[in-house]
Design brief:
Elements: H1 8-19, H2 32-35, H3 62-78, H4 80-95, H5 108-112, H6 118-129, E1 149-156, H7 164-178, E2 181-183, E3 189-191, H8 192-195, E4 198-199, E5 202-203, H9 208-215, E6 224-226, E7 228-230, E8 235-237, E9 242-243, E10 246-251, E11 254-259, E12 262-268, H10 274-298, E13 303-309, H11 311-316, H12 321-340
Antiparallel strand pairs: 1-12, 1-13, 2-3, 4-5, 6-11, 7-8, 9-12, 10-11
Helix pairs in contact: 3-4, 4-12, 7-10
Length: about 350
Amino acid sequence: MISSKVAPRAEGQREMLSEGRLEAAPPSEAGPSWAAGPPSERLPPLGQEAPPPLRCHTDCLEAPLSRCFLRLGASVGTHPWLFLLGPALLTAALGTGLLFLPKEKENLEEQYTPIGSPAKAERRFVQSHFSTNDTYRFSASRTSSEANFASILVVSLTNSLLEPRIFTEVSKLDRAVQALKVVQENGTQILYKEVCAKYKTLCVPPNPLLHAWQHNSTLDLSNLMFPIHNLPNRLIYLAGFFGGNVLGETMGKNQRLVESRAMRLLYYLKTEDPEDSERSKAWLTHFLDHFKDMKSTLSLEQTEVFRKLGFIREANKGGRFGDEVVFELKLGMLACAWYEIPL
């Protein structure tokens, strides 16, 4: 015997059909086919239409990039040694071109100032209105380009170097520096008086006060004014040549120079003419090589002496060009290898 059970609701609907009185159930009483399933799959209510699908994609740039990086990652994972050794070998091959660069290039303006830059235009304006000539009318305050020079710093072992005995020692050092000469391979000599920057027919003095004392040893060093001292026939500017100063009473725009611990000697050389510039560099190199021997020969007792060259010469006086190139190559290869190592 086969029996069947009908749900009460279904049985009621059958009765309504049989009586011709079947009515649509309200939406709140919809059957399982209306409300079953996730919200995204439900049918919209009667009388309402589903909104059209969005046509704007926010990943229009992200999606292709993700695919590209996915392929790149797969390639790196499949062939790791190619991506590790390839950049290193390429860097080593291209880096050998550094060996063909000039060994020395001592022109800061050409290397670091762009062509047609405002700095070059301003420099041309300064040169046209404040001209100088290092063979006849040199002025350190009017120079508009890098000049060759040697600087010696003299530091007193006492409280002050404004004493005749210390000036005598410094004067001996100055004469030894100006007596240096370079003997070239062809036998010609390069003297300081030939390569020094000149004002009229004389070399520019390395220190104005020392120069005045050398011509008048009776100059009273205990009665000096700073920064401008008035000599009987001219004015001398002391700022920039003396350090560790102790100033006293004020007289007008100046003050009395009581003590000074350090003195600077500046030896300016010719730079404007290329031939003179090369001779000046040769003299500077000779000065650098023989400075320690010269200082030990003088047996200075009252002062300590330190030397400094012009910025370019100081930057290039040490180190070998080949070592710098090898270091740059190693650094580039290490950077490439580190960048390609997966973390």
